[in-house]
Amino acid sequence: MEQILPGIYKKKDKLTTKGKSIEVWNPYISKPAAAILNGLKDFPLKKGQKVLYLGAAHGTTVSHFSNIVGDKGLIYGVEISTKIISNLVEKVKKKSNVVPLLEDARFPEKYGWIGNVDLIYEDIAQRDPVEILKRNTKFLKKGTYFMLALKAKSIDSVKDVKVTYENVLKELKKDFEIVETITLEPYERDHLFIVGKV
Ligand SMILES: C[S@@+](CC[C@H](N)C(=O)[O-])C[C@H]1O[C@@H](n2cnc3c(N)ncnc32)[C@H](O)[C@@H]1O
């Protein structure tokens, strides 16, 4: 098994991360895995980091992030759905470094007590991903990273996805530095994975 990034391993075509056991990181259900397999160069998630994760869902990706940040790191997983968060709680019950938060990421003042984080990851299939990100970057210090998994069809279901990507990047560039972008085909259609800095 070859280590390709801190805490991330590759054997043949399979990515894995390691917590208490080795977990296969499936790019068809987890966008950062798709981005990495597609050649993303600057993956900013590191051991020991405190991460604000927006759109935690059932915890598939959260679980891998938890493995990567390790015991000294922490993942705050924000999820709006009561039904979904119960699966998240069940999935991460043995992971002491994950804190599920039943909140709406549009209202970060509700979880303002978390204080500064080292990284924000957003994967919320909504019409206003940039606005949600902007509201949450108050938790980031200047020069630190965010990652945004952008689903073009959530913003506009008919527009050419490339136009939507361009519009979103233009909007982000008003406030942030774009470090890298990569599309997620063949694993996910119509998604752009964006790494940026505040
Ligand atoms: C595409 S899924 C995330 C998948 C997840 N990141 C993964 O890789 O396992 C989007 C999630 O965002 C949640 N969501 C949607 N709007 C939200 C909001 N305003 N605040 C917090 N979570 C939200 C949805 O309920 C859903 O679980």
Describe this structure in words.
The protein has a single domain (2-197), classed as Rossmann fold (3-Layer(aba) Sandwich), CATH 3.40.50. The chain has six helices and eleven strands. It has helices at residues 31-37, 60-69, 82-91, 129-136, 152-155, 161-173; strands spanning 2-5, 8-11, 14-18, 22-25, 50-54, 74-79, 98-102, 117-122, 140-151, 177-183, 191-197. A hairpin with a 7-residue loop joins strand 10 (177-183) and strand 11. The mean pLDDT is 96. Bound molecules: S-adenosylmethionine (SAM). S-adenosylmethionine is lined by residues 30-31, 54-55, 57, 60-61, 78-81, 84, 104-106, 123-126.
Index terms:
198 residues, alpha/beta, Rossmann fold, 7-stranded mixed β-sheet, 4-stranded antiparallel β-sheet, 11 strands, 33% strand, globular, binds S-adenosylmethionine
Task: Give the helix/strand layout.
Blueprint: E1 2-5, E2 8-11, E3 14-18, E4 22-25, H1 31-37, E5 50-54, H2 60-69, E6 74-79, H3 82-91, E7 98-102, E8 117-122, H4 129-136, E9 140-151, H5 152-155, H6 161-173, E10 177-183, E11 191-197
